[in-house]
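Cross-check.
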Amino acid sequence: MPDAKPGRVRYSILLMLFLVTTITFADRSSLSVAGSAMQAGLGIDAVTLGYIFSAFGWAYVIGQIPGGWLFDRFGTKPVYTLALFIWSVLTLLQGFVGWLPSTWAVTSMFLLRLLVGFASAPCFPGNARITASWFPTAERATATAISSSAQYAATALFAPLMGWVVQTMGWQSVFIVLGCLGLALSFVWLKQLHGPRQHPRIGTAELAHLEQGGALIDLEGQRGGSGGSQWRYLGLLLRQRTMIGIYLGQYCNNAITYFFLTWFPVYLVQARGMSILGAGFAAALPAISGCVGGVLGGLLSDGMLRRGHSLTLARKLPMVLGLLLSSAVVLCIYVDSDATVVALMALAFFGKGLGSLGWTLVADTSPRQILGLSGGLFNTFGNLAAITTPIVIGYLVSHSGSFDGALVYVGLNALLAVVSFGLIVGRIHRVELDAASGSAS
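Predicted model, tokenized:
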């Protein structure tokens, strides 16, 4: 006899998503915590450090569309587990480059950051597939917000810890600690991740709740076909106004993210005169604020949807309001108090979290047959900012000797994201593919 109430297996999947995404962002932001000490230890300038910061982004972007295709072709569990294992090994190896001569150390670090970026590229397209299959529409924004808030939780949890590790054991130890954690988590992930129909603990009531609520519970049982059938849909996605607005908005949104993940601790040390340990603790407050904002954004969006508001209004309103708040980062130029700077950054990243519903939009709008491909394309656009933001800020700082231009750059990207999500994206609806004609509607 079916259970009287839906079970909670989907929340255990959400917990795993949160943990893996936390490790993902801890790995990619580890260099920002170690960056100032590494810069001094290897004798490199701001431009060189900017290029090393950007190395992750180059490969991460290149790997997005192939990563999304791999999910559609082979399923989430094998692709995601292998990716997690490989990027953890590569993170661990970064801890040993300090033993090399300076030139070789810089080159090796750049190459390892490239490889980490490529290996971790499937992460967020995989998260989108898992969320779409495990959560009904009215719970999807909250689930996405919680898993995405891991990017802030990673900094809140690991920035103080990694600051202490750098100060007491050296910058190389950061990568060794995080690499070992990732390897341990990859074995837990292998055991715990299943599709809804394949999960050994799911009850019939919860399965019915997912299916009736719009969850794509058979997604893991479907395969996207040959590579050719996938690639020909790229043009169709890029001709959809809704998808274009989502992709462009995510690029601008991620410019804020990658300032925080790369240059923000360096800004606190070099422009504000904080110690590395102090910068690690100071970075935690904006991260916590971003995490809170992210969860509230999802709750607000799903709450509006349950109260009868349109899907378009329920998704757009938190995004527009949040990203307007993010532009407050520019005000840091005009204040002298370190406490005020941290407070403004906390406000900006609360807004950034509130407005981070891009992956929810991907799950809401992408054609179900190529959700992984669409997620890969979305993350390709978004993570071009992982390339441009560290380099642009590196040149701005090197040229002016100040971080003021960098803060203006970040604030302008927040406003451009408002335009993209608020105006370019029209009515939010799922794009459907006509299998016979290969057209989208």
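The two ends are 41 Å apart (CA to CA). Residues 9-42 form the longest helix (34 residues). Passed to J.P. for a second look.
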